[in-house]
């Protein structure tokens, strides 16, 4: 039977569910036997009970045999004595070594002997075989329940007793059908096997659970001991309190801080150690009513009273909860930060003293910085104004001189000559307007700008100005709609200056309105004042720029100053002139790309006056022609239409094949389509300038190809700009206005000196 014990010793700790036998799990904390050993001890403890139970069953059936006169009382007692001898012999053998591996085999053998003995007795007297089968089934169930040894030992007992029963069937009496008897025996045997395996698994699960429980308890106790050792020997001050704020634990370091033993602090109120410092309110509330705290407590510093002096402690408190999640107290680990607090107090005192000493110096320095900032802003504004002024003056001057040069040399004739004269006149007027604006600003700053007041009709002035700017509006396909009251709208003012105001507003609206837009001029009376509104569908005004539109040199974003000519003086002059007439001017806009509206209000008057407008001057010139640039392809990059047209006409008249473009992007497309012989480009252009273009051209040449001669033609006329252009890779630099023949000669020389194709 050794193989039975070997099989049973293979206990799977993950198997089994159910209620354990009480005797099998009565372990102590000091001794936790293995599951197989514990099961053997349980079997040994159960064996006397099984013996008594089986003796009672055997005695009952022996008595039935005596009653049926199948056996004498003496023989019944002798048979019962034999059964008792087998049972108590097994008890004696197993109790000698209750944990020995032989326990299970001994019990199995004893159970088999008991079943065989009953079979022999029933066969000897010819008793009822059906009854004997019931007795054996009782044996199977009893062993399965009492010993919980699993299906294999139970199967051994069944097989070892069923075989003798089969052998004894000729000597037994059967009253029921054999098929019913066999079915009952099979079902009962399977039931007893199931009970045996279930009891074994439940026992193994109980043993494993108890073993794990004991081991967990030991680990928990070891962890508690380790943490207690850490707390007892830590230099930090550690304490815990209950719901009412009384100490439930303090470590020796905490007790030493107050000059007492830990036992003296236990049970005392924790707030008794706190001083009356206002900073203690947070920790006092936490210790007093910890259950009222929402969320984890934050680190805090508080002051305590010790026998020597007050000390500052910095704590990281936490809430203690029981197994049901209820708050039962507070735990905290504290650090003595008294020295740090003293240093902070000293530092604060020093800072206060230094702060008072710095106030005067900061005030003086602030005034100096403010003065310096004003000076620097004025310098920047001056430099920016001068640069803008130079550009705005040179651009129209270049167009005038260049077209005059072509006219004088007879390079344009007929309709082109008329168009050239129109360009010369337009640019001359633009330059005259710029100079006039500069003079007006100078007069305004010196206080010498005056007006001659008389009765004037604002309606007549509006009509005259609208006709004056009609050509510029038609050139951009901008519709100008005038809506005015019937009759005169008289005001007391200077007709020339009021015409200047209206002209500034309308030219400004045309300048900032895209092609195909619309300008509406509204003129009427409003509460004793003449009201003039100029509304456009132009680029609009940003909210941050709107308050500054009437300031001098204000043009919004810097890029706008490049796209639209002007010094940013028109609105500033208009505001000053309107104020000289006792009126007001204001600007409105819903934002970028949503148009703008300017409203002028002037006091009404009843005395009439007339107004006349000056006529533009006529200029004419002629130039001779040349073929110096015959068969040369020249790429001209110029964002200003007049200057681009002049350069195109100039170079074409000398025989060049000119490709005019208005931006760097168009120039790059032209370079990729067909490489020119010479590049002539402006420098100051919106979005990307001429410096960006020459850098890209020279970068493309590094990848392969001949060097392209490049000439800069620009209104940026300073020596620094010339040096910058030459350093960037240009071969020549011409400042506007330039001598046209010089550009022609430079193009010819650059083409002649260019590198031959590779």
Give a verbal description of the structure:
The protein is built from 21 helices and 18 strands. With 758 residues, it is of the alpha/beta class. Strands 1, 2, 3, 4, 5 and 6 form a 6-stranded antiparallel sheet that branches. Helix 20 links the parallel strand 17 and strand 18 (732-735). Helix 2 (35-67) runs antiparallel to helix 3 (73-96), helix 6 (151-167) packs antiparallel against helix 7 and helix 14 (495-511) packs antiparallel against helix 16. The longest helix is centred in the middle third of the chain and has 71 residues, at 338-408. Residues 1-32, 557-564 and 609-625 have low confidence and may be disordered.
Secondary-structure topology with pairs:
Blueprint: H1 2-9, H2 35-67, H3 73-96, H4 103-125, H5 129-147, H6 151-167, H7 178-233, E1 237-242, E2 247-250, H8 252-257, H9 262-265, H10 281-288, E3 300-305, E4 310-315, E5 318-321, E6 327-336, H11 338-408, H12 415-446, E7 454-457, H13 458-475, E8 479-484, E9 490-493, H14 495-511, E10 518-525, E11 529-536, H15 558-563, H16 570-580, E12 584-589, E13 596-603, E14 633-637, H17 641-653, E15 657-661, H18 664-673, E16 678-681, H19 690-702, E17 710-714, H20 719-728, E18 732-735, H21 740-753
Parallel strand pairs: 8-10, 14-15, 14-16, 16-17, 17-18
Antiparallel strand pairs: 1-2, 1-6, 3-4, 4-6, 5-6, 7-9, 10-11, 11-13, 12-13
Helix pairs in contact: 2-3, 2-4, 2-5, 3-4, 4-5, 4-6, 5-6, 5-7, 6-7, 11-12, 11-17, 13-14, 14-16
């Amino acid at each position: 039977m050794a193989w039975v014990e070997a099989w049973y010793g293979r206990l799977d700790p993950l198997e089994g569910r159910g209620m354990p036998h009480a005797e099998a799990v009565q372990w102590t904390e000091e001794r936790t036997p293995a599951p197989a050993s514990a099961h053997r001890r349980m079997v040994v403890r159960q064996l006397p009970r099984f013996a008594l139970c089986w003796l009672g069953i055997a005695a009952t059936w022996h008595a039935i045999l005596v009653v049926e006169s199948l056996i004498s009382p003496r023989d019944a007692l002798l048979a019962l004595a034999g059964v008792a001898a087998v049972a108590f012999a097994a008890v004696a053998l197993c109790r000698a070594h209750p944990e020995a591996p032989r326990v299970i085999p001994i019990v199995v053998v004893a159970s088999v002997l008991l079943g065989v003995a009953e079979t022999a007795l029933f066969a000897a007297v010819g008793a009822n075989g059906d009854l004997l089968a019931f007795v054996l089934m009782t044996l199977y169930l009893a062993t399965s329940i009492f010993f919980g040894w699993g299906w294999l030992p139970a199967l051994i007992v069944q097989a070892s007793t069923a075989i003798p029963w089969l052998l004894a069937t000729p000597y037994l009496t059967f009253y029921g059908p054999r098929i019913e008897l066999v079915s009952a025996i099979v079902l009962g045997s399977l039931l007893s096997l199931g009970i045996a395996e279930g009891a074994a698994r439940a026992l193994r699960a109980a043993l494993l659970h108890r073993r794990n429980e004991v081991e967990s308890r030991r680990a928990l106790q070891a962890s508690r001991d380790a943490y207690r050792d850490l707390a007892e020997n830590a230099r930090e001050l550690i304490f815990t309190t209950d719901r009412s704020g009384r100490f439930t634990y303090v470590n020796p370091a905490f007790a030493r801080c107050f000059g007492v033993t830990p036992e003296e602090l236990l049970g005392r109120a924790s707030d008794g150690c706190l001083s009356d410092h206002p900073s203690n309110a947070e920790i006092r509330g936490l210790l007093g009513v910890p259950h009222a705290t929402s969320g984890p407590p934050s680190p805090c510093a508080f002051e305590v009273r010790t026998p020597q002096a007050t000390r500052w402690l910095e704590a990281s408190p936490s809430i203690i909860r029981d197994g049901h999640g209820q708050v039962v107290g507070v735990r905290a680990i504290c650090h003595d930060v008294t020295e740090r607090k003293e240093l902070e107090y000293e530092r604060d005192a020093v800072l206060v003293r230094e702060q008072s000493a710095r106030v005067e110096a900061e005030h003086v320095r602030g005034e100096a910085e403010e003065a310096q900032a004003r000076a620097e802003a004025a310098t920047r504004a001056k430099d920016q104004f001068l640069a803008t002024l130079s550009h705005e003056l040179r651009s129209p001057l270049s167009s005038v001189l260049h077209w005059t040069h072509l006219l004088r040399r007879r390079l344009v004739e007929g309709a082109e000559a008329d168009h050239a004269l129109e360009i010369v006149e337009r640019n001359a007027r633009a330059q005259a307007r710029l100079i006039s604006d500069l003079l007006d600003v100078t007069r305004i700053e010196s206080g010498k700008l005056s007006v001659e007041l008389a009765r004037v009709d604002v309606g007549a002035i509006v009509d005259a100005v609208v006709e004056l700017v009609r050509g510029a509006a038609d050139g951009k396909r901008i519709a100008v709609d005038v809506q005015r009251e019937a009759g005169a709208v008289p005001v007391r003012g200077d007709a020339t200056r009021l015409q200047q105001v209206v002209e500034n507003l309308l030219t400004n609206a045309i300048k900032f309105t895209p092609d195909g837009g619309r300008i509406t001029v509204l003129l009427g009376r409003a509460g004793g004042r003449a009201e003039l509104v100029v509304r456009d569908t132009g680029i609009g005004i940003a909210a941050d720029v709107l308050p500054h539109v009437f300031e001098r040199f204000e043009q919004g974003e810097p890029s706008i100053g490049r796209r639209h000519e002007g010094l940013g003086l028109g609105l500033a002059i208009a505001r000053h002139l309107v104020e000289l007439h006792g009126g007001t001017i204001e600007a409105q806009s819903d934002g970028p790309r949503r148009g703008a509206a300017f409203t002028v209000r002037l006091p009404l008057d009843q005395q009439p006056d007339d107004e006349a407008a000056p006529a533009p001057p006529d200029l004419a010139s002629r130039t001779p022609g040349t073929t110096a640039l015959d068969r040369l392809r020249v790429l001209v990059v110029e964002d200003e239409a007049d200057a681009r047209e002049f350069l195109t006409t100039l170079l074409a008249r000398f025989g060049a094949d000119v490709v005019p473009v208005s931006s760097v992007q168009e120039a790059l497309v032209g370079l990729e389509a067909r490489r020119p012989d010479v590049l002539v480009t402006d420098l100051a252009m919106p979005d990307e300038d001429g410096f960006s273009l020459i850098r890209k051209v020279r970068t493309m040449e590094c990848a392969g190809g001949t060097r392209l001669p490049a000439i800069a033609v620009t209104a940026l006329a300073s020596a620094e700009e010339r040096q910058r252009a030459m350093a960037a890779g240009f071969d020549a630099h011409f400042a506007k206005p330039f001598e046209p023949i010089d550009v022609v000669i430079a193009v010819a020389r650059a083409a002649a000196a260019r590198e031959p194709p590779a």
